[in-house]
Amino acid sequence: MKQTYLLLVLVLGLVASCSTSDDAPIEVPDPTMYFPPVGSNAWETTTPSSLQWDESQIDALKDFLIRTNSKSFMILVNGRIVMEEYFDGHTAQEPWEWNSAGKTLVSATTGIAQQNGLVDIDTKVSDYLGENWTSMHQEKENLITVRNLLTMTSGIDDTKQLVVKSNLTYVADAGTRWAYGNVFQKLMDVVAASSSTEFETYFNTHLTSKIGMDGFWNEGAIFTIFHSTTRSMARFGLLSLNGGSWDGEQIIDASFFTECVTPSQSINPSYGYLWWLNGKSQFMVPSQQNVFPGSLVPNAPSDMVAAMGAKDQRIYVVPSKDMVVIRMGNASDPDNPNFAVSGFDNALWEKINALIN
């Protein structure tokens, strides 16, 4: 009897030692992947404390985002919102421009058209758009495949960003030169021609409606730009984190999406199918032919892939951390709005690391 009593006292003491003084429950993050419901604004959340993040760093991160002209910022872990912030009068209901981050939407839609049997990315573009869609000699134009448009290796002059026939002139044979440019927009024409419908209609039917995105394409000064709310941008980031799958449904073919976020050519290994890739041995940037050694964003996880647009529109996808990070806003440096990659990325990830590590 005495031994039983002593054992009971010991157990009760252990239980008491595991409780806080106010009996607050211990927060434990949910390791399962969550997908917000389609057709609803409901979205599960989790807390930085449950992830054992350093909450004392949140204010420094917010201050940085404000100083760099951000409009919105989100972090998802396992699909759940950990942070969602809006600045400068922007709200959760307002759309904002994706700029070149929207290239990844075009890549995804092209992949969907291929899995639906409408497009073969190894087929020459002229099979879909007809001959003489460029101002190049026919033999050179015929070298350009859909894959070349996805990988920025068309060989078309990248100094003229307005995509009209007179600007689509020869610089190099397709596949021999990487150059960041707006000719990727011809992928939208390929999808439209192969599906006999407007690109936006096909895009909405096969992508946005499947994952609950809002948004619209708007013709800008030099190319068509997608606009959406921050949460819709986050939905696409979550789809990408899961390899093109949404709550058990494979929206984008898994093998195609793997190709999207894998080096697509050896000239710039930090580029996939309109996605930027971190952690590679070297990289190139828009408007230059220089090759820089090292990782694209040294402060970011090496497995990060990113949709990057002018004025620092960003989707960062980090599989090793089950994380998606969204930033929308004006240019962090108004004197250098840039096309895609900028020093902003490394500075932001320094702040994020202080929070999550």
Give the class from helix and strand content and strand pairing: alpha+beta
Radius of gyration: 23 Å
Average pLDDT, all residues: 92
Number of strand elements: 13
Under the CATH scheme, which architecture would be assigned? 3-Layer(aba) Sandwich
Number of DSSP helical runs = 11
Domain unit count: 1
Q: Low-confidence stretches at least 5 residues in length (pLDDT < 50)?
A: 1-24
Q: And the CATH topology?
A: Beta-lactamase
Output the CATH class name: Alpha Beta
Strand order of the largest sheet: 2-1-13-12-11-8
Helix-strand topology string: HHEEEHHHHHHEEHEEHEEEEEEH
Strand count, sense and closure of the main sheet?
6 strands, antiparallel
Tell me the helix content: 25-40%
Shape: globular
β content, as a range?
15-25%
| End-to-end Cα distance | 50 Å
What's the CATH superfamily, by name?
DD-peptidase/beta-lactamase superfamily
Fold topology:
Elements: H1 2-17, H2 58-67, E1 70-77, E2 80-86, E3 96-97, H3 103-115, H4 126-129, H5 138-141, H6 146-151, H7 186-195, H8 199-211, E4 216-219, E5 224-228, H9 230-241, E6 245-246, E7 249-250, H10 254-260, E8 276-277, E9 282-283, E10 292-293, E11 305-309, E12 313-318, E13 323-329, H11 343-356
Antiparallel strand pairs: 1-2, 1-13, 3-5, 4-5, 6-7, 8-11, 9-10, 11-12, 12-13
Keywords: Signal
InterPro entries: Beta-lactam-related (IPR001466), Beta-lactam/transpept-like (IPR012338), Diverse_Enzym_Activities (IPR050789)
Pfam families: Beta-lactamase
